[in-house]
Amino acid sequence: MVVLRHEIGDVLRDVRQRQGRTLREVSHSARVSLGYLSEVERGQKEASSELLSSICSALDVPLSHMLREVSDRVAEAEGVVIPDTVPQELSREFVGDIPDELPEELRGLASARY
Question: Where's the HTH cro/C1-type domain (predicted)?
Answer without folding.
Answer: 12-66
